[in-house]
Amino acid sequence: MKVNAHFVISAAKPEDFPPGRLPEIAVVGRSNVGKSSLINTLVHQQGLARTSRTPGRTRLINWFEVDGRFHLVDLPGYGYAAVDRNMRAGWQPLIEAYLDKRAVLAGVVLLVDVRRGPEEEELDFVPWLEQRKVPIVVALTKADKLPKNKRMLEVSKAKKTLALKRDPFAVSAQTGDGIDDLWRAIDKLVKK
Ligand SMILES: Nc1nc2c(ncn2[C@@H]2O[C@H](COP(=O)(O)OP(=O)(O)O)[C@@H](O)[C@H]2O)c(=O)[nH]1
Ligand SMILES: [Mg+2]
Fold first, then answer.
1. What whole-number distance in Å separates Cα of residue 192 and Cα of residue 173?
2. Above pLDDT 70, what percent of the chain?
3. Rounded CA separation 64/25 (Å)
4. Residue 72 CA, ligand 2 centroid: distance in Å
């Protein structure tokens, strides 16, 4: 499947958010969970979203246009910097400002490291989004790090912990596992 994607703009504060021209799918998760890598793999363009071995590097929101149809939005990671620690839900004000006010937001892809499973931030985050009627798709990242049987166990554990209606996806940006299924889910959100 050929995907056309390009970088649109970055913003460090709400005043700099671009006008909402297309539906947006926001990719959210802890620093280093694999947000940028997943975006690159989804659009088959390594190096589009910058990836880093050093957690907490991306402090900006980045917009990527996909097939002239929607925007994938790479949000800053939460749960790493010391400044986050005292914040109630642990995600940063910029993320909250975006998610709370974005009229074109079609859904959130919440990423959780398959080896860590959902933690306090995600337990807060899911109901926070549900309250705002934002559709959520949960994906467990770095699935290549676990054998298939352990992955499936983590999938059902995460579903239960986060009280999800459907199974989260187990995905790997490295092997491409689960990427097609995640694409279909994103596509549905965009078309809604
Ligand atoms: N094994 C494996 N490593 C991954 C995968 N996705 C990301 N990583 C690694 O995890 C680190 C953080 O990835 P990045 O995409 O920058 O995370 P972000 O901070 O959430 O944007 C990098 O070293 C990536 O190479 C994956 O699917 N499998
Ligand atoms: Mg990143």
1. 26
2. 90
3. 10
4. 13
Strands (DSSP E) contained in 32-135 are 61-66, 70-74, 105-113
Q: What contacts 134, CB < 8 A, 6 or more positions away?
A: 99, 105, 107, 108
181: number of CA atoms within 13 Å, CB side?
A: 15
Cβ of 190 below 6 Å from ligand 1: no
Beta bridge partners of 28: 110
Q: How far apart are CA 95 and CA 125, in angstroms?
A: 11
The DSSP result for 121-135, as a single string, is HHHHHHHHHHHTT--
Tell me: the pLDDT tens digits for 69-83?
999 999 988 875 444
Q: Identify the CA nearest to 31 among candidates 98, 116, 106.
A: 116
Please say if the pLDDT value at position 191 is more than 80.
yes
> How far, in Å, is the centroid of ligand 2 from the Cα of 29?
9
With a 6 A CB cut-off, is 178 part of the ligand 1 pocket?
no
28, 109 contact by CB (below 8 A): yes
Average the pLDDT over 148-161 and give the result.
Answer: 97
